[in-house]
Amino acid sequence: MEPRDSIDDLEMSDTEEKTKSIILLGILTLLTITGAAVLHVNQPEFILDRFVNISEFEYSLFDTTLYLSYLIVGLFTGALSDRWKSRRVFIFVGTSGSMLFYLLMTTTISYPLLLVYRFLQGSFTVMIWQTLMTMVLDLSGSESRGKSMGIFGAFLAIGMGLGPAVGGVIASYGVFWPYYFACILNIVVLVATLVALKEPALTKNRPSLAQSLSIARRRPELVIPGLFNFIDRLHIGFILTALPLLLSVVLGLSESLRGMALAIFALPFIILQYPMGKVADRYGRYLPLIVGSLGFGSVMSVLGFVGSTSFVALLIMLIFLGIFSGVTAPASMALIGDYVPQDDSAMGMGLFNFMGNLGITVGPVLFGILIITTDFVVAFFAAGLLEVVTLGICAVLVRFFSLRERRMAFSINSTS
What residues have CB less than 8 Å from 182, skipping those under 6 apart? Predict the structure, then answer.
């Protein structure tokens, strides 16, 4: 019989190995997201100086096209990843395709063709980071899933915040340099995957594509984390569109101060990912989601009013907004692993990201509709109210699925 100490040592060694792998996955995600985010900073120069006759609506299609690619391709990436039982191949293909289309976007003189390249670049990029996110679920048990997603979420958030800051420096050397830099980062991800990233242990069961795509019907409770991600990403799209415009038009602030405001919002979100993941493991997923959603909705609803009167007060509110956003993110991601078995983890994460990508696509459109018909104060109030309404819907769904499970368990016990 094997000594207890030896078993404990093996379990500790396995845990440490998984933690190292999750950190590696986080670093690769940071590099991937940073590469995509460096492009945002000089889009006016990259697009308007080259395609002088396009309208403001056509200009907006550059990012809309990106989000649509995330929306569409992310879902099928999850299904195919479960079907083929291979994760690394999607990273190889994703990094190679991203590099190609980053470069091609610097060569075309046709704006419609640029949008095609943008869609394809986004398709390969989402293939990378969604696969990396799924691999975190592959390595996480129920007792550590929140902590693992917290670690991953911190790297993801750092990449989102670091990209524009780095892009601003790199763009000073030339309008195409952010695209070249994104290629370099993808090369690093490709090499690191070849050298250091292992294929996770997966079950031998291979669901068909149709079975994978039916995950929402087979696991309808996935709608709960999906809705949380939808509203979270909707607000990210809303804020990234509305806040810089408010700071520019209403307060007349420079680009550097606008960047500082976005950084202040992102910082507490980054810091809280790991500790709030541990909180979600200890106290359950729903408590952070309730507290975070109520707090976020309350702050968001007054942000337009505060931002129209005082920049200092706005910065304070943005800190609280970032805090409440950081509270909810790890818990909602961890719910995916709670609701699906490992066989369906990639498809479950694909559905989760599909809802998030749908949200970030809707966010700017929602702001556009509201700002045309109302003003900044009403627009932010409506967005904050939407957070609270979504929380209420999710609470009803949690209750519904809980009662359904009890009825099913009672029926099975009665039959037996």
Answer: 35, 36, 38, 39, 98, 102
* Confidence label for 187 from pLDDT (cuts 50, 70 and 90): very high
Q: Are 318 and 333 in contact (CB under 8 A)?
A: no
Taking only the tens place, the pLDDT of each residue in 219-230 is: 777 888 888 889
Nearest to 167 by CA among 260, 47, 38: 38
d(CA 187, CA 404): 49
Task: Provide the residue ranges of all domains of the chain, joining segments of one domain with +.
Answer: 16-200, 216-416
- pTM for the model stands at 0.70
CB of 395 closer than 8 Å to CB of 298 = no
Report which residue type is found at 27: I
Architecture category of domain 216-416 in CATH: Up-down Bundle (1.20)
Q: Could you tell me which CATH number the domain at 16-200 has?
A: 1.20.1250.20
What is the token pair recorded at 229?
A: 């991600």
Spatial CB neighbours of 95, under 8 Å, sequence gap ≥ 6: 32, 124, 128, 186, 187, 189, 190, 193
